[in-house]
Every structure is written in C-alpha cells, then in structure tokens.
Amino acid sequence: MEMEMDSVEGGGRVHVDAAASSAAKEDGKARQGTLWTATAHCITAVIGSGVLALSWSVAQLGWILGPIALIAFASITYYTSILLTDCYRSPEPINGIRNPTYMAAVKSYLGPKHVLLCCIAQYTSLWGSMVSYTITSVTSMREIVRSECNHKHEIAGCSLSGNSFMVMFGAISILLAQIPNLEELTWLSVMAAVMSFGYSIISLGLSIAKWISHGDIRGSLMGVVSRKDMSISSASKTWGIFQALGNIAFAYTYAEVLIEIQDTLKSPPSENVTMKKATFNGSVITSIFYIAIGCIGYAAFGNNAPGNILTGFNEPFWLVDIANAFIIIHLVGAYQVFAQPIFAFFEDSIVSKWPENTFFQTGWTIRVPFTKSRSLSIIPAKIILRSVFIIFTTIVSMLFPFFNEILGLLGAASFWPLTVYFPITMHLSQRKIARGAPRWFLLQGLSLVCLVVCFAAMTGSVVGLIDSLRHAKLFHIEY
User: Fold this and answer.
1) Where are the domains of the chain?
2) Which of 277, 322, 361, 461 could bridge across to 409 with cysteines, CB 3.0–4.6 Å?
3) How distant, in Å, are the alpha carbons of 11, 27, 122 from that of 263?
4) CATH number of 35-470
5) String of DSSP letters for 148-204
6) Domain named Amino acid transporter transmembrane: which ranges (predicted)?
C-alpha cells in the first residue's frame, strides 16, 4: 500500500521541479541531505578497517599486481556506483518512483526473484562489516593500552582482555544505535570522516618516515616469495594472493549503503546528479589515500608488511596512539552507518507484519537539551531489538577475531553481487540494452571477470580463516 501511494503521489509531482519543499516530501519523508552530507557518508562508509590491510595486500601481490589491483578495484567501484545512482528512481533516473533502499531498486528493475539474493548479500555484508569494525576497533584499543604500558614499563599492570574491549565497544554502539535513522547520523558521519582522514594521514606519514629512514624501496615485483628456501610454500603464496584480492575488494565496498545514502538527499537538483558528484568526491579522495598507503606502506615494510599497518609502528608512541584513537572514533560512526539499514529493514518488516500491535510503535518524545526545536523519539521496542542485535554481533566478533581473514571473506562475498552484478543488471534493464549488443557483452564480460576474481578471493580467505581457527580458543583473544 505504501508503494502504491508513493507511485500515485510521485506521478502527480514529476513535473513540479521548482517546488523544492514538495519534492523533499514526495512520499511523506522530509529529506535535507546535500552534496556534502552525502560525501561525508560515502567517505565514512568507504574508508574503514580495509585501509589498514592494504599494505599487507600489496605485499602479497608485489609491485606489479598490487598497484594494478588497487586501481582496477577503484575504477570498477566508481563505474558501477554511477550506474547504481541512476537506479534510485524507476523506470526513469529523474522522474521515476523512488526506491528508498537497495532491495527496493532490485525489486523494481529485476523483479521479486532477485530480491532474496539481494537481501542475503546486502544484509550479510552490512552485518559482516559491523563484525569487522568491532574487531578492528578492539585491535586499536589494545594497541593504545599496549603502547602506554610499554612506554611506562608497566606490562604487568595491563591485564585488560580483548573481550573487555569488545564489551566496551558494544556498549557504546548500543547507546548510539538509539539514533532514529541514517539522516540523523549526519553529525556522526562528518566526525567519522574527519577521523578517517586523520588516521589515514598519520599512517601515510609514518610509512613515509620509515621509508625515508632506510633509504630504499623494499618489496619485490612478485611480492611475498614462494621459493623452497623461504618460509612460505607455493600454496600459501597462492592463498595469500587470493586473500589480498578479497581485502582490497572489502576496502572499496560501499554499494550496499549507496541507495540508502541517496535517499537522504533533497531535490532539486535530482538525487542522481547530486549522488554522482558525491560518489566522485568520495571515490577520488579514498582512492588517493588507498593507493598511497598501500604502496608507500609496502615500500616501507617490504614483504614483512603487517596485516594492520599501524601495528608496525611503536614510535612516536603518542602519534600512533592518536591514530588508533581516530580509528576507534571513525569505526564507531561507520558501524552505525552500516547498522541503520539493518535496523530499518527489521523494524519496517515488523510494523508491516503486525500493524495493529502498538508495542512496536508506541514511545515518548523527548526534547533534546540545549536546542530550540529538536526532539528525540524513544520507542522501547526499538531499544530492545537494536540492543539484542548488537549484543549478538559482539558475541560473534569474540568468536572470530581474525582481522585479515574476515576482511577478505567479506570483501570477496559482497563485492561481486552488490558492487558489480546488481548495478550492471539493473542498468541493462533500465536502458533496455538488448542481449547480444556490444555494450551487453562488455558489461557481462566485466561481471564475469569480477565473479571469477571474487570466487578465488573467497576461497583464499576461507582457507586462511580455517587455518586461524585451528589455533584459536573459544572466546579467547590474546593480548
């Protein structure tokens, strides 16, 4: 019923481009997002824990394949994201009916048969990113405490376990999860985006300093070697390459929240015009940092590049601590950006299934202190559901605290369906490109190549995860 009302209302307003306020409330939802808020959301979603593993990934690939892979994934992500922005409305990119979520766009263009696959891929990716961000934040928390203890020579006095840090991060996430929706998270995204620049610049600066200190470019053309006289086998080299591709894919993945970000934008100008500019800004900025950190980090550490670039630095300890603090603050914000679509999906589903049940809709409105007109709706059912979900996510993070393996698996599993397959398939449907046409062959060829690469990356990440699980203890995170 809601979609039908949206269609009628949207159809009556497609020619009233001058009425900005009416367009903003086309389906009853006020949208106030701008180019800059969308850019902030994009940067927050893209620059995450994946950037910390890029130097290690380049080390597995070497000086030839490493930079090529970084540039290739950046180019593919940007291109398919541009295609995806045009799918926000259907059947036309400008005057069509709104598709407020990724799944709504898939249903509109490809039909209900594709919705289940999209649902599994999108929400598994979003939830997996939340697990990854929990693990990464805990790593940074531990590094701060470790650094302080080493500096003060008080190792014995630092006994906090990794699980304690997990609980702390989960508690903060539960508190912030009570923010109603993605649009209300703008301030947190802006702060997180600033933090991402902060630790990226520090990581880059420390890598440059280390590179200059030893005066040569380390690493090799083929990356980590696999000769018999070295400590790594040919099989391990192969799995390492595949896992590295998964890590790079994870670093560039944000398509799962692109439509949701676009749904916060006001118009005019049309949402796809603004979102394309935001996507360009976010892609260029993040790609510059990614390529620089991945390559300069490899030049500094060579084939011994650590899985998390910041763990390779001990001094100056205060600067490393600041970088890790920036990571924690950024991932606290990014966690919420990825969590909000999940919350909205479950909450809307519950309300649709039980519309007469007031438990999921009854709450209180509280005025925000020190503001004139802002208020916050408190709904007990949402607090309970969101808190339970985050507690579950935190427990899973305790079970699988493996940084590189989790990143590679998530990137490999989500990149092809969400970043490549659905945007390309929806574009073909939208533009009515005939099967067998030159453009059809090119786009389908791109999709096939990405599928093969992602399958290989998933295989390598699964092998790495299985190997890590052999040496792991249940709910035990080594300090």
Assistant:
1) 35-470
2) 461
3) 18, 11, 17
4) 1.10.4160
5) HHHHHT-GGG----HHHHHHHHHHHHHHHTTS-SSGGGHHHHHHHHHHHHHHHHHHH
6) 32-466
